[in-house]
Amino acid sequence: MDTYTVNHETALKLDNSDPLKSYRKLFYIPKDTIYLDGNSLGLLSKPAEESLLKTISEWKNLGINGWFYGNPDWWHYGEYFGELMAPLVGAKAREVIATGTTTLNLHTLVSAFFQPSGERNKILADELNFPTDIYALESQIKLKGLSPDKHLVFVPSLDGRMLDEQQIIDYMNSDIALVLLPSVLYRSGQLLDIEKLTQAAHARGIPIGFDCSHSVGVVPHKLHEWEVDFAIWCSYKYLNSGPGGTAFLFIHEKHFDMEPGLSGWFGYVKSKQFDMLLNFEHEKHAGGWQISSSNILCSASLEGSLKMFHEVGIEKIREKSIKLTDYLIYLADEILVKKGFTIGTPRVPQHRSGHVALEHEKADKINQELMKRNVITDFRKPNIIRIAPIALYNTYNEVWQTIKIIEAIIDE
Fold first, then answer.
1. Can you give the pLDDT at residue 228?
2. pLDDT for the residue numbered 1
3. Within its chain, how far is the Cα of 154 from the centroid?
4. What pLDDT does 402 receive?
5. CA 52 to chain centre
6. Burial of 250 from C-beta contacts in 10 A (0-12 / 13-18 / 19+)
7. Cα(317)–Cα(362) distance, rounded to whole angstroms?
8. pLDDT of amino acid 8
9. Each residue's pLDDT tens digit, 382-409
């Protein structure tokens, strides 16, 4: 374990010995800015830019023929990027597809996996989840002719920051037909034990899915081995695909024969797609859960980005991410706690993702002052500044500078 000090020299030594330091030059970092908001929108990399420009050139020079003669051909974009993505989440290639948006993918999967029957007629979620997931669950319950007030169960948080995993398990009662949880709580950064929760749900005969938007790209996963039924995640945070980038879904191969709840032409068997038959026949893999054609320009940047992730390795990214957040927590303890801050993120590395939540009664105002000083962090009501040092482009020196700037703001 590293030994830290509050001296500036420590940050410089950590940067000097950083095995990933060469990747910083591959990213476009806003001029004179410390950018620590990659858990909301990751920065553009040169490899991502190159693959995007390549696709624009294909559109320019091939027109509609890009669907079949692009490299890769646009027709198989979803499958191509699913295959690139799969090793980063511990999945088989056919279990992952790049398609749609996070919330649309959630609707698609929940519409199939939520099958209320008899006393099993409720969905279990948590009260700290990102609201869009809850909105989707409520609407899916209504579409089954049920009431969200009665059929959506929330696991409470005892402190407004974290969830107790045993309490989640205790809520997996005989009336629960589906469990949907975040892999990471978006405010506090708490990382849930996906394997443990999946085993508990399956022991009770309940399918379970996860929104992994705040963990994919910064935490290794083993979705296939853990037998997670389904998962969704975006690509514009830690995966750096760009604003509104194409999302992903995972469905375990044991469910390949399941009929998608929402169907569309692009989920049809690829070899028969242009037969234009009216009876839907879906691909017996994740590709069968596509609804519409790939958003080519929003997907293109993924090629450069994902290839870079393969080059670095998700384990090395996780190793540096832990060191960066450890260092951030150490400095906050030594400098900011005495000035009224509380750390709202788990201190044990295996229980947190890639960001740290600093809590202060004047967090909103402090965050505004940080923005004025070109330090880009993220405020979440009621009192949280989220700081996400990204392994591929942030430095230990930037973490040190940010803590000192916050100290100066408080002192002023």
1. 98
2. 53
3. 21
4. 98
5. 21
6. buried
7. 32
8. 98
9. 999 999 999 999 999 999 999 999 999 9
Backbone angles phi, psi at 280, to 5 degrees: -70, 130
276 Cβ contact list (under 8 Å, min separation 6): none
CA dihedral (168, 358, 314, 319) in degrees, to 10, reads -110
Q: What type of residue is 193?
A: D
Which of 260, 257, 231 lies closest to 89, judged by CA?
231
Q: Is 63 left (phi over 0), alpha (psi -120 to 50) or beta?
A: left
3-state secondary structure of 154: strand
pLDDT below 70 — which residues of the chain? 1
Residue whose structure tokens are 């990213």: 27
Contact 386, 380 (CB under 8 A): yes
Strand spans (E) along 268-367: 342-343, 356-359
159 phi/psi in degrees, rounded to 5: -125, 5
**One-letter identity of residue 349:** P
H or E stretch covering 35: strand 34-35
pTM of full prediction above 0.85: yes
Mean pLDDT for all residues in the chain: 97
User: How do beta strands 96-98 and 248-251 pair?
Assistant: antiparallel
| Location of structure tokens 């940010």 | 402
Q: Which residue has the tokens 């909105």?
A: 135
3-state secondary structure of 153: strand
Give me the percent of the chain exceeding a pLDDT of 90: 99
Is the distance from CB of 127 to CB of 156 less than 8 angstroms? yes
**Type of residue found at 33:** T
Total length of the chain: 412
263: Cα within 13 Å, side-chain hemisphere: 12
274 is written with which tokens? 């242009």
Long-range CB contacts (within 8 A, 24+) of 22-27: 23/308, 23/312, 23/392, 23/393, 24/392, 24/393, 24/394, 24/395, 26/308, 26/392, 26/393, 27/240, 27/392, 27/393
Q: Which domains, and CATH codes, for the chain?
A: 8-32+313-411 (3.90.1150.10), 51-311 (3.40.640.10)
CA proximity to 42, closest of 245, 189, 232:
245
* pLDDT at residue 3, rounded to an integer: 85
Residue 140 identity (one-letter amino acid): Q
Single-letter residue type at 411: D
